[in-house]
Amino acid sequence: MSALLEATEKALELLISGDEALWQIIAISFKVSGSAILIATPPALLIAFALAYLRFPGRRVLVSLFSTLLSVPAVVVGLTLYLLLSNRGPLGDWRLLFTQSAMVVGQIALAFPILVAMGHAALQSADKRAWETARTLGASPLRAFFVVIRETRFGLLAALLAAYGRIIAEVGASMMLGGNILNYTRNIPTAIALETSKGEFAQGIALGAILLLLAFTLNGLLHYVQGKGVQMS
Amino acid sequence: MKPEYHLQVSQLCKSHGRRLILNEVEFSLPKGSCTLLTGENGAGKTTLLRILASLEKPDRGRLRLAEQSWQPWRKARRMLQQRVMYLHQHPYMFDGTVEYNLRFALGSRVPQRDAEPLIEKALRLIGMESFRKTSARTLSGGERQRVALARAWLRSPQVMLLDEPTANLDYESRQRTLELLQRLRNDGMTLVIASHDPLHFEGLTEQRLHLQAGRVEAVELNMNPATQPANVILMRRDYA
Q: Is the Cβ–Cβ distance between B9 and B25 less than 8 Å?
C-alpha cells in the first residue's frame, strides 16, 4: 500500500513539476488523436448523411457493416494495418510503419465506424422536415446539408466525443503501428503499458490520471451535449 | 376570355411500392385562385402537395407552368421548385430566432441592406414585430404557422401549398392564419390548401379538388362566388 502511495505522490510531482518526458507523451497523444478525428470527421459525416438521407442499393448492408465495425478490437485493426504497412505488405513502400502517421491511420480506422454509426443514428432520428424546409426555401443541396448538420449538432458532437474518447485511450493499434518510440510515437496508453511492465508505476499513474481526467471531461461534455439535444427536440 | 393558369398538371401518377397513390391526376390552378384539396386520410393529398413542391418524384406526369408549354415532369421540376412553396402541416422552425428563420428564406440572393426592410415587412405582415428576437422553437403552433407563412412569403412564390394549415389551432390562431391567407390571395398568390375541414376555408376557396383512391373524384367550382376571381375556369371531370 505504501508503495502505491509513494508512486502516486511521485506521479503528482511529475505532473506538477512539468516533467518534459511526461508532457511530451501527453502532447503526442493529443496531436495524433486530434489529427485522426479532424481527418476522419468530414468523410464520416458525409457517409452518415448519405446513409440517413439517400436511398440506394446496399444501404442497409453498409449500415450493418459500420455497426459491426464498432466492435472490432483495436488490436485487430492494428494487426491488419501492420500487415498492410509493413515492408512486405502492399503499402510497405509508403514507409509509414512506426511513425505518427501510421498511428493516425490506425486511429482513423477506429474512429471512423463510431463517427459513421453514431452520426447516422443522430441524422436518422433528426427531423426530416429540416432538410425539406431548407430545400423548399431555396437552399442548394450543400446548404441544406449544412442546415441538417447544424440542426443535429448536439448528436453529432456526441459522436465526435465518443470517437475521441475511444481513440485517445486505445493501446493495441498505437503500439503495433507506432512502435512506442520515446519522444516520437509513445503516447499515453502505450507509455502506461510500458512503464507498468517495467514496474515504474509513477509515470503510469500520472498518465492514467490524465486519461481519467480526460474521460471525466469528455463524459461531462457528452452529458451536457445530450442534455442540450433533448432540450432542443 | 382565355383563362390564365399558374400551373396545370396532367397524367400524374405516383405509387409507393405496389400501392397506387395517385392515378392519372389532372387539374389546373388559375392565377390568384385558392384551391381546397380534400380527401380521406391516405387519399394522397400530402403526396400530391409534396410532388408539386418537388419533395417527391412522380412516376410520371406532365406539367405546364404559366406561359410555358406542356413538359415532362422532370424537365419542369427545377422551374417548379422556384415557383412553388410548400408548408408542412407542422412547420419546421430552424434552431434560432424568428429573425434567423426569416433571414434564411432570403439566403444570399438579397444583400444585407435590402434584407432588413423585407424582414420588417414580413414581421408586420404576420403581426409579430415584437417576436423578432424570440427563439422560434418556443413559439406556439399558431405563431409557428404564421412565421412559416412569412418565411414562405419572403421567397415570393407564385403558388403556395399548405398542408392542413389550421389543424390543431385554437379559434384565434385559426382566424389569424385565415386572415393571412386571405391577404396573400389578395396579393395575387395562388394557394392550394389540403384540409379535412372545408368549412374553415369557406370564404377563401373557389374550387375544390377531392381525391379518392388516388383519383380526382369531384371538382366543385365557385364555392363562394363572392370571392371568385374573374378568370375561374378549369378542370377536366371526365376521369372522375
A: yes
The pTM for the full model equals: 0.84
Say if residues B126 and B161 touch (Cβ distance below 8 Å).
no
Answer whether B104 sits within 8 Å of A137, measured CB to CB: yes
Assigned fold of A2-232? MetI-like fold (1.10.3720)
Collect all residues of chain B within an 8 Å Cβ-Cβ radius of residue A139.
104, 107
Contact B155 A138 (CB under 8 A): yes
B5 touches B30 (CB < 8 A): yes
Residue A167 has pLDDT above 90, yes or no: yes
Interface contact B104-A136, CB threshold 8 A: no
Over residues B104-157, the pLDDT tens digits come to 999 888 888 889 999 999 999 999 999 999 999 999 999 999 999 999 999 999
- The C-alpha cell at A63 is 449500415
B positions 159-218 inside 8 Å of A (CB): none
Closest residue by Cα to residue B145 from B127, B124, B169, B119: B169
Interface of B with A in 102-141 (CB under 8 A): 104-105, 107, 109, 137
- Say which CATH superfamily domain B5-227 falls into: P-loop containing nucleotide triphosphate hydrolases (3.40.50.300)
The answer to whether residues A205 and A227 touch, using CB atoms and an 8 Å cutoff, is no
- Our CA-based measurement puts residue A129 at a distance from the nearest CA of chain B, in whole angstroms, of 6
ipTM score assigned to the predicted complex: 0.85
- The grid coordinates listed for B190 are 395562388
**Residue A139: closest C-alpha in chain B:** B107
pLDDT of residue B218: 65
